[in-house]
Design brief:
Blueprint (H helix, E strand, L loop, with lengths): L6 H12 L1 E5 L6 E6 L4 E4 L10 E3 L12 H10 L3 H10 L2 E3 L6 E3 H7 L3
Antiparallel strand pairs: 1-2, 2-3, 3-4, 5-6
This protein binds zinc ion (ZN).
Zinc ion (ZN) binds next to loops.
Length: 116
């Protein structure tokens, strides 16, 4: 149906299904994972599944202050009774703190840079 989504959006949709993304710190270039699950939301400096790397909590965006496509996606999720994905969007469009260097940066911009 129609044109396929651009690669960045495909990656975004896959990541949202898992609630995890691999991203790079914009300052120190550490490889990070951001994860927003039902029970926790954090950035880890490395793979949190196979190891126990340093973590920092994610800072969710205020749902009332989302802009761009985020309010529409959030509204669609809430209208469908999907509060989990709606909550995940606040983390996707919120900020992360790099556990290695302490830099605070927007999550969505880093997710959009990855082709996978
Ligand atoms: Zn860093």
């Amino acid at each position: 149906m129609g044109r396929p989504p651009p690669p960045g959006l495909r990656a975004d949709l896959r990541g949202r299904g898992r609630g995890e993304y691999g991203i790079g710190c914009p300052v120190c270039r550490s490889e990070l994972f951001v994860a927003f699950h039902e029970e926790e939301a954090f950035a880890s400096a490395g793979d949190h599944v196979t190891a126990d790397p340093p973590r920092a909590p994610l800072l969710p965006a205020d749902p009332e202050r989302l802009d761009g496509i985020a309010p529409r996606l959030s509204g669609m999720a809430r209208a469908a009774g999907r509060d989990g994905p709606a909550r995940g969007l606040t983390y996707l469009f919120g900020e992360a703190t790099c556990p290695d260097c302490g830099t605070v940066f927007p999550v969505s911009a880093r997710v959009a840079e990855r082709p996978y």
